[in-house]
Design a protein that fits this description.
The protein has two domains: 194 residues, Rossmann fold; 161 residues, Rossmann fold, CATH 3.40.50. With 371 residues, it is an alpha/beta fold. The strands form two sheets. The chain has a seven-stranded parallel beta sheet, sandwiched between helices. It contains 14 helices and 13 strands.
């Protein structure tokens, strides 16, 4: 059995990147490991501390490049650390972890080959190649020819998606592991029940991005208008930046604040989503088909992959209400979509709901502890 490990997570205040960290940290703690998180001073502390996870804030302005490297190195030295898990979109933190000599895993919360190491990887959001290589020179590290080559330097690349959804091209790098979606438990939302009787028809959940995106409110309104009068019940979960009073809500719909996916999806027959990968992973974990209305970022690619495995359909976020209604009814009426979503649920179950990632991290420190 692996001795208790001391894991340091490095992350940032995004959208779909936070849930896997919370869920993976919670699973590590259940196995008896010590976990702490290094993140921005605002926006995340309360979420982690509410789960009993120690949280240390960066210095002001250090979430990305300004001082991030020094912060990671200092944090790894200030407390005993056996392994570092870095959000792959933080190149400076990856360089710092490499310089530390500690076993390191990169947590990839997007599709792998099409997005993470593609020609326009999100790793370039925080910095450019010249700046990264300048930092590497300061640290005494060899330069890299492309940003995604930073992933070649870590012991493990943990991709929080199933390989069947990602459909990577072969061969994969030897350090890459598809560990499947890692979603938070129902937590404070455990025991949630639908506000309508089951006899009122199927429950359709609409859940858009928790971070502001252009057109998200307009897309929600089109969904509300599209399903007005349909023989179903529509539940729309709103993010903090949405104003519920600004929506025109039909009689068969309800607006509620954010609910954890693990609480509501077991009751849902269909998800309408912006196609964020974390939300997709949650829906498919519960065998729920998806109507994808991608708003931007990597979401169009995610939607294409959902459609390719037959577990849903993709529409433009600007689709007319009549088209949205038609596709919703198709997804509810045609059993092939449910069958495909349930197949993906079985695939995700085989990944262990995050425990495969825990096993991989335990293997890292076991090798490290054995010297």
């Amino acid at each position: 059995m692996t001795a208790s490990g001391r894991f340091l997570f490095v992350t940032w205040a995004g959208g779909g990147n936070v849930n896997p960290v919370l869920a993976l940290a919670a699973r590590l703690r259940r196995r008896g490991h010590q976990v702490r998180v290094l993140g921005p001073p605002h926006g995340l502390r309360e979420r982690f501390e509410a789960e009993g996870i120690a949280y240390h804030a960066h210095r002001k302005g250090s979430e990305w490049t300004d001082g991030l490297c020094q912060d990671v190195l200092a944090e790894a030295q200030n407390e005993p650390t056996d392994a570092i898990i870095v959000d792959y979109m933080q190149p400076a933190a990856l360089c710092a972890a490499e310089h530390s000599g500690l076993p390191t895993a990169a947590l990839v919360h997007t599709l792998y080959q099409r997005v993470a190491i593609g020609p326009h990887t999100p790793m370039e959001m925080a910095s450019d190649l010249a700046s990264v290589n300048a930092l590497r020179a300061e640290l005494g590290l060899s330069p890299v020819e492309r940003m995604s080559a930073l992933l070649d330097q870590v012991a493990r690349v943990l991709v929080v998606v199933s390989g069947e959804l990602d459909r990577p091209e072969e061969p994969l790098a030897r350090n890459v592991r598809f560990v499947g979606p890692i979603i938070e438990d129902a937590g404070r939302d455990a025991g949630w029940t639908r506000p309508w009787p089951v006899s009122d028809g199927p429950l359709v959940l609409c859940s858009m991005s928790t971070t502001p995106m252009d057109g998200d409110a307009a897309a929600i309104q089109r969904v509300l208008s599209a399903l007005d009068g349909a023989a179903l019940r529509l539940l729309v979960t709103l993010a903090p930046h949405h104003d519920a009073a600004r929506f025109d809500v039909p009689a068969n719909a309800a607006l509620v604040p954010y609910l954890r996916h693990a609480a509501v999806l077991p009751h849902a027959h269909l998800l309408i989503s912006h196609a964020g990968l974390s939300t997709i992973g949650a829906a498919l974990s519960f065998g729920v088909p998806i109507l994808c209305l991608p708003l931007g970022r990597e979401q169009p690619a995610n939607a294409d992959h959902v459609q390719a495995v037959g577990a849903g359909l993709r529409l433009s976020a600007n689709a007319e209400p009549t088209e949205i209604r038609a596709r919703v009814l198709e997804l509810l009426d045609d059993p092939k979509y449910l069958a495909a979503a349930q197949h993906m649920s079985a695939v995700i179950e085989a990944c262990g709901y995050g425990w495969r990632a825990v096993d991989e991290l335990e293997a890292l420190i076991r090798i490290w502890q054995c010297g």
